[in-house]
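Hello,

I think I submitted the 5-O-phosphono-beta-D-ribofuranose job twice by accident. Can you confirm which output corresponds to this input? Input:
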Amino acid sequence: MTPTQTISAPVAIVMGSDSDLPTMAKAVTVCEEFGVAYHLEIISAHRTPERMVEFASQAHQSNLKVIIAGAGGAAHLPGMIAALTPLPVIGVPVPSRHLQGLDSLYSIVQMPAGIPVATVAIGNAQNAALLAIQILASHNRELLTQVIIYRQSLAQQVQTKQARLDE
Ligand code: RP5
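Support: Only one job matched these inputs. Its output is below.
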């Protein structure tokens, strides 16, 4: 396990279980596409609570700037990390086996005033990574340019689809 204070990446992608990885891998892919380094770790609010406290309370003393936290079911990880760090936390509700992720969403999104978690849609780890990158880009012109180019590519995709409809 990496000592938290030695983490050199600006983005952490943490998740409650390896069963969350198929969802959270989408955040990994986006970070890799943008060339943003990330720290990937399984941290469980319930099964490894001491590691959660150690990681979250020391994260701001590392190079980390933003934390993406995914969990499913009783998804307490993002909120507990947010309670323990001054860094921005983005929560990913992981689709669950029995309630399709609605339980995860409610567990993550209903934070009390004062301790925000920026919650994305159920399963949308892609948006979590994009938001993390936009946070970094607010102080990084090169990354900001990459975000602008990415948005232009989205617009281009829509135009291509419309051109097919028009044929
Ligand atoms: C949560 O419990 C994890 O985030 C995961 O989504 C869910 C189920 O975990 P496993 O039983 O698959 O390890 O803590």
